[in-house]
Each structure stands twice: as structure tokens, then as C-alpha cells.
Design a protein that fits this description.
With 210 residues, this protein is mainly alpha-helical. It has one domain. The protein is built from two helices and two strands; from the N terminus they run ββαα. It starts with a strand and ends with a helix. Keywords: Membrane, Transmembrane, Transmembrane helix.
Length: 210
């Protein structure tokens, strides 16, 4: 290989020397340079794809946590509305039994006064018998009075216990309703706890990534 060195003197090119280099030496030299260049390009290539891989690795994890954030957000949102609906179901269930109780409450009072009507009716009938009948008739009427009296009394107590049965039945559903009411609030705050937890985790991941 020939290397020609020149210099510029007063605007003219001047030949300094002419160097002849052995082709084998130059081949070894340039082959080493070529190998180094290839290695350098390979290292740059590897570094580039290494960085590129990690960029997409973190990019993937960013969307992975982003996906989980929205997954939990949806899940607890659904959970919240499920218990919200569940609460309202028992809320109306409670009101159904509340009015059911009041229906039997007035039903009881109706029979209560009905009983008093029969009681006074029997009493008046007994008095009338005592006043206008003979001894034999009075005895018959007295028996007749006691028959009506016990019949009415039984009638009254039957509806009295009937009323209390529905009264406690109402209170059972009343507390049953409150149980589900607080059960709903527990899941409501449970949902908010996980919602803010996911929010914090999401922003924490974004901060770490940056």
C-alpha cells in the first residue's frame, strides 16, 4: 500500500515522502480495525436493543399496573353497587314488613274493638235477661252470657297474641334491616379503602417509573 504525504508551502503542494507499507501489515491492521468496528457496532446494537427492551419492559409494567388499577377499580365499583343494591333490597324489604306490621296492628285494633263491642253486647244481654226474666231464665241467660263472654274473651286474646306475633315479627325484620344496612356501609367503606389504595399504588408506580 502506498501513502503519499504532502504539505502546502507558499500555495504550492510539495511532496514530503512516499511510504510503501507492506500489504500484510496493513491487512492485519485494517482487519483488526474492522473487527473492532464490528464489535463496536454490535455492542452499540446490543445496548440499543437492551435499552429498547427495558423501555418496553417498563412500558409493559406501567400498563400492567394501569390495567390492574382499572381492574380493581371496576371490581370494587361493581362490588359497591352490588351491596348498594343489596342494601336497597333489604331497605324495601324492611318497609314491606313495616307496613305489613302496621296492617296487622290496625287489624288487631279492629278486632280489639270488635271484641269490646261483643263484650258490651253480651253484658247488656245479660243485664236484660236479669231484669226481665225469671230465675230460670236468668240462669239460662247467665249461662248464655258466660258462653258469649268466654267466646269473646278468647276471640280477643287470640287477636291480641296475633298482634304481638306480628309486632315481634316486624321488629325482627326491623333489626334484620339494620344489620344489612351496616353490612352495606362496611362494604361501602371497604370499597373506598381499596379505591384509594389503588390510586396511591398507581401514582406511586408512575413516580417510580419517572
Amino acid at each position: 500500500m502506498h501513502f503519499i504525504c504532502v504539505e502546502i508551502v507558499d500555495g504550492k503542494l510539495r511532496l514530503i515522502h512516499k511510504l510503501v507499507v507492506d500489504f500484510r501489515i496493513s491487512y492485519r491492521f485494517f482487519s483488526k480495525c474492522a473487527v473492532l468496528l464490528i464489535l463496536w457496532n454490535y455492542l452499540c446494537y446490543c445496548y440499543y436493543y437492551y435499552y429498547y427492551y427495558y423501555y418496553y419492559y417498563y412500558y409493559y409494567y406501567y400498563y400492567y399496573y394501569y390495567y390492574y388499577y382499572y381492574y380493581f377499580y371496576y371490581y370494587y365499583y361493581y362490588y359497591y353497587y352490588y351491596y348498594y343494591y343489596y342494601y336497597y333490597y333489604y331497605y324495601y324489604y324492611y318497609y314491606y314488613y313495616y307496613y305489613y306490621y302496621y296492617y296487622y296492628y290496625y287489624y288487631y285494633y279492629y278486632y280489639y274493638y270488635y271484641y269490646y263491642y261483643y263484650y258490651y253486647y253480651c253484658y247488656c244481654y245479660y243485664c236484660c235477661c236479669c231484669c226481665y226474666c225469671l230465675c230460670y231464665c236468668c240462669c239460662c241467660c247467665y249461662y248464655y252470657y258466660y258462653f258469649y263472654y268466654y267466646y269473646c274473651n278468647y276471640y280477643y286474646y287470640y287477636y291480641y297474641y296475633y298482634y304481638y306475633y306480628y309486632y315481634y315479627y316486624y321488629y325482627y325484620y326491623y333489626y334484620h334491616y339494620y344489620y344489612y344496612y351496616y353490612y352495606y356501609y362496611y362494604y361501602y367503606f371497604y370499597y373506598y379503602y381499596y379505591y384509594y389504595y389503588c390510586f396511591y399504588y398507581y401514582y406511586y408506580c408512575r413516580f417510580v417509573q419517572k
